[in-house]
User: Which sequence fits this backbone?
């Protein structure tokens, strides 16, 4: 089978690593890829926003299956364009990708199908939004409706912050993505992520995984794309798992089908475990980054037939199996991230780091030049490890990090520490 993977992050390196291990695959390309992905796939310099150039490449190379990593091409309808050209692709249609592409769309779906979520209202002008804010009071959450590279959500603890967020969004800080604003009840509780594959009819959950969004240790500093993750997490019990499947995931799949826009791909739910039970606060429509890195390390089943089953409506016959070992990933980022940072610093010691038992290094923003690996983005490396416990995986990952020579990089030192504390308490 000929497969083309789209994307260039740590998520795509992990996917490339897992797809390349499938005996079904005879050739794997990745567009545009990165220096690490180049070890698993042939990287091609395609502009993935240009759907016709992706289709031309598929035709010229007899590509059987396209796997779409990031959300932007999904929301732009690349899966529909590929389907119209007779090319099968993993990921939701443009309509179904609205679950990530429009916060208002998801809130309306929740209302229509009784999916638990915070109270909300949608606005297209600042005056009405401000009146609602004043009626509700702080804390409250202000969200740009569309894709805003993870920056379109303001959790406002005071009215001043909330009013400033409304003004910023209607002033065009996020362009068209902020033309509509959703104002949502502040939900308190433990925040977890929940992942499932869906074929439009049914869904099967992926292993539990927890990410770390803030840039600094002890959840300090601004939000990022994610600074680390581990799996499994002790905070999603069997009971919580069943509640989320029954009250959130399966009603979403049924609702999307009933509307005539079935969801096929990865449903990634952001869920708050509130005193009133789990409540959905957002959907993403693709694998997490960095959660995908730990999912791929723990997935025992071949991922290629699982993704094909999603496309073909055959998931009910499918069983995903997982290794019992834990997996953990620590993101190494360029100093300055998530703000401004420099590109081009040299990273050394990767082979020494990868030599530690259980360690796998997935690249994100890297490039290679004259045999050297250079930093080429904000999030640059995912130093991952497996182990019998999260404690063992964490120790291995940080041992590997200590072998990497990259003075311009940094990482959090506490990835997985809550699970490690739980393992210690449980003896
Ligand atoms: P997002 O960019 O949509 O992932 O949202 C960023 C963060 O905002 C989430 O990870 C949550 O921590 C927080 N958040 C979003 N919605 C709510 C809510 N209704 N209540 C409390 N926190 C929220």
Assistant:
């Amino acid at each position: 089978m000929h497969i083309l993977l789209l994307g260039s992050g740590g998520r795509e390196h992990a996917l490339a690593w897992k797809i390349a291990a499938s005996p079904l695959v005879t050739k794997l390309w990745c567009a545009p890829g990165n220096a690490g992905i180049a070890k698993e796939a042939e990287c091609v310099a395609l502009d993935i926003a240009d759907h016709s150039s992706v289709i031309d490449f598929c035709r010229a190379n007899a590509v059987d299956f396209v796997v779409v990593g990031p959300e932007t091409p999904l929301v732009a309808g690349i899966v529909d364009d590929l389907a119209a050209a007779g090319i099968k692709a993993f990921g939701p249609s443009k309509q179904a990708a609205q679950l990530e592409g429009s916060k208002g769309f998801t809130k309306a779906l929740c209302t229509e199908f009784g999916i638990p979520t915070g109270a909300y209202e949608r606005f297209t002008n600042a005056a009405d939004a401000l009146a609602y804010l004043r009626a509700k009071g702080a804390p409250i959450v202000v969200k740009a409706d569309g894709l805003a590279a993870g920056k379109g959500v303001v959790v406002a603890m005071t009215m001043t912050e909330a009013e400033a967020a409304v003004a910023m969004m209607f002033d065009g800080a996020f362009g068209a993505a902020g033309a509509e604003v959703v104002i949502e009840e502040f939900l308190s509780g433990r925040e977890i992520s929940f992942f499932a594959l869906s074929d439009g009819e049914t869904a099967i959950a992926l292993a539990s995984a927890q990410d770390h969004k803030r840039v600094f240790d002890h959840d300090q500093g601004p939000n990022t794309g994610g600074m680390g993750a581990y799996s499994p997490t002790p905070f999603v019990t069997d009971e919580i798992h069943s509640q989320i499947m029954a009250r959130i995931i399966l009603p979403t799949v049924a609702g999307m089908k009933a509307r005539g826009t079935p969801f096929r791909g990865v449903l990634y739910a952001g869920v708050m475990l509130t005193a009133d039970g789990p409540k959905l606060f957002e959907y993403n429509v693709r694998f997490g980054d960095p959660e995908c890195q730990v999912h791929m390390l723990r997935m025992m089943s071949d991922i290629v037939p699982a993704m094909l089953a999603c496309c073909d409506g055959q998931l009910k016959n499918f069983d995903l199996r997982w290794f019992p070992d834990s997996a953990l990933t620590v993101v190494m980022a360029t100093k300055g991230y998530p703000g401004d940072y420099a590109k081009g610093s040299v990273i050394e010691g990767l082979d020494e780091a990868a030599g530690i038992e259980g360690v796998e290094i997935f690249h994100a923003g890297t490039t290679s030049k004259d045999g050297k690996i250079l930093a080429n983005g904000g999030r640059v490396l995912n130093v991952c490890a497996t182990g019998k416990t999260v404690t063992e995986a964490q120790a291995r990952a940080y041992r590997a990090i200590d072998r990497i020579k990259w003075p311009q990089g940094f990482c959090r030192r506490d990835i997985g520490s809550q699970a490690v504390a739980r393992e210690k308490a449980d003896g």
Q: What stands out?
A: The mean pLDDT is 96.
